[in-house]
Structure formats: structure tokens, C-alpha cells
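Regression check, pyridoxal-5'-phosphate case 421:
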Amino acid sequence: MSADLRSTDTELPAASQNGMTSGRPETRYPNSTQAVHAGERRYRAHDSLTVPIVQTAVYTFRDSQALVEYMEERMFWDEPLREEYGRYGNPTVRAVEAKLAELEGGQEAMLVSSGMAAVTSTLLLLMNSGDHLIMTDDCYHTTLAYCQKFLARYGIETTVVPCGDCQAIEAAIRPNTRVIFTESPTNPFMRCADLARLAEIGHRHQVKTVVDTTFATPMNLRALDYGIDLVVHSVTKYLAGHNDVMAGAVIGSHDLMTPLRQAHNMLGCIVDPHAAYLILRGLKTLALRVERQNANGLAVARFLAGHPKVRKVWYPGLDDHPDHEIARSTMRGFGGVVTFEIDGDGAMAHRFIDGLKIPTVGPSLGGVESLVSPIAVLGYNDLSPEECQALGIRDELVRLCLGIEDTQDLLDDLEQALDRL
Ligand SMILES: *Cc1c(COP(=O)(O)O)cnc(C)c1O
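Current build output:
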């Protein structure tokens, strides 16, 4: 093993350049070639084409002198020269990290055991007791609960501001503010943040900006290109993509990732090598899957928007979405999540959901199988009716998370379920 544990010796063609609206930073979306090859060494152990699953907790040393040399060398290297112990690193896991770093255009990535582990460890590391955090509303419910209930116990205060309101974000900054955290697009209303502006506010006030771009993936949005400090993902969703494995990731600069990795070595939310292999395998088809999910999302959103039994649709690819302009100028595609209200009550929404033949009822998103859920029941049942109303979570709200099924089959299925209402 050598120092190129994480690096690739494959020269890949440059990512496709995409013309951006003038005045906005250039962004380079990764392509399918990168999804397949990025981060992987061209020649691997045992001449295996695929990255081997290195199923070990312990890495051994030839003799005590080799151990002495390793410990001495380690003091001078930020990156490991070889592996030592399973909690500190694994070659299969490192292959995923190298691929994710390349796809996001970051210097380093860290793979952790779930999306929540990515969120919780990142925020824990960036803040001390007495610090202040700004979160945008309309975000993953568990992330909000972590900030408002868990971090509060350690003297970290959270201010929640409306997503997309940069003025409100800047006005909420205090001398002890350390982090601005937002999702983009958000769950469930698909609000999209002006990342360039957010990054500029963060830099001006020396506040770190962290964005959860789980709903976009680097195929649709690369937040680091806009000057955002750290990107977090629920790898469970699109990145792994098959509804069969849980993981999370954090991507950013070497300077920010080094202390985060040191904390991770203590916190211990690691991914086992089998799960890492499934993620690596899933990532190879990311470009293809997201392309289809973008197409399914747009076709379904347009269909629903024109249907008399649907009251309102939230999809950033539609003209009437509040963030359509920002999404259009910063994203390549708008993803596979469509949120909408059935023109009726909660019971009618449930009847519609039960009439669908392709999507099954369940949480999560981003995998090859389409999933559907009545949002008020699934993510928000611990809130009072008043709290739900304040968040716009009505009983007739449906979240449809499209998989890679045939577009026309999905449209036909939606039509028959709506017709039967
Ligand atoms: C699912 C999700 C999470 C949490 O990820 P897990 O892998 O379920 O822990 C965080 N953020 C967003 C936007 C999500 O969709």
C-alpha cells in the first residue's frame, strides 16, 4: 500500500462545461465517465476490475520496526500511508470517498454511517458551547429537531429563518454565529437557495456555510463551486440509489475535513466495507439514474400541474415555483421529487395514494423504485395541527419520489389513480 490510497491514477476527460447565466460562478457537472471511474485506481489488488471488499478490522505490520516507522511517518502526513485499524479507514470506504470528492469537486470526502451522522457530526464539530446556528425552515425534520432539541442541551442556540430569504439570514447573524445550514432543494417544498449569495454572506461574516444537497446530487448541483464551505449528503438516497443501504457523506476542503475526520475517528459512525461496496456500485450509474429521475420529475410535475384534481404542485422546474429562476440558473436538472396537494381532503389524498400501482407507500427517496407518502402522516405526525399549518403541511399533501421506471408508465399510473377519485 502506498500514499496513493485515495488518489486516482486514471486521467479522466474534463467534466462537461456548462454555460451559466452571466454573473454566476462557473460550475462543472460531473458526467457518467466520472461516475464510473473517478477516484478509483486503474489497477487494483489481485488484478480485480472492481474495488475489492476489504473485510478486515485490523491491518498488520511486518514487524515492530515497521510499526515504529509507520507511527513516525504518520506525524508528517495528513493522509494515511496505509491502513491501521478499521475505525480509522478502509480501502473500500476510501474508494467511495475519493469518488464522492471528485464528483462534488471537493478536496476530500468522508463517508459516515447515515445522512444524519453526516449532519450531526459536522454541526457538532463546527460549534462550541455558547455558539449560534442559523437554519433555514422547510428542511429535513430530524435535522431541525437535532438543532433545536439536542444541540440546545449543549448551549448552542438555533435561529430558524425562511429558506430563500437571504436578507433574513444575514439579519439573523450575531457575533457568536458560526454556521449557516440550509438544504437545497428542500424537503418537501423543493425550495432552492441562492448558494452564491449565501456563500458571500458567510465569507463576509466569517460564518461557515453548510448545505445539504441530498435532493440534487452533484449531477444537478455542485454547491462547492459556489463557494459553500461544506456539502453534506444522505448517501442513502440518490447516491447509493437502490433503497438498500444507509450512509452519509461530508465533502469540502482539506482544512475543514481534517478536523472533521479526526472527530469522526472518535465518534465512530463508520460504514462497513460491504455497505461501501454497494455504494460504490450504485455511484457508477448515478449519472444515468439522475438523468431519468430528472426526466420523470419534470414530466410528472407538468402532468400534475395540468390536472383538475390537483390543487398545487411544488417542483422547481415549473415556472410558478417560487425558486424557478434560481433553480434554472444553478441546476442542471430538478430531481425526482414532486410535492403536490390533491384538490380535496386528507382521506382523498390517501385514496389517491392507495390507488397507485407503481409507487409503493414509504419514506425515503432517490432509489430506483418510486415511493409515495402522505407527508403529514409520515414526517410530521409528532407536530400539533397548528405547527403543521405553520409549516404548510396539510393532510392532502403528497410527496412523490420518482424512481427510474418508464416515464409513460408512471404518467398512466397517476392518471388512473386520479381518475378514480
Ligand atoms: C434522508 C435525509 C437525511 C437523513 O439521512 P439518513 O441517511 O436517513 O440518515 C438528511 N437530509 C435530507 C435532505 C434527507 O433527505
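Comparison notes: Residues 72 and 388 are 57 Å apart (CA to CA). The chain has 16 helices and 14 strands. No diff flagged against the previous build.
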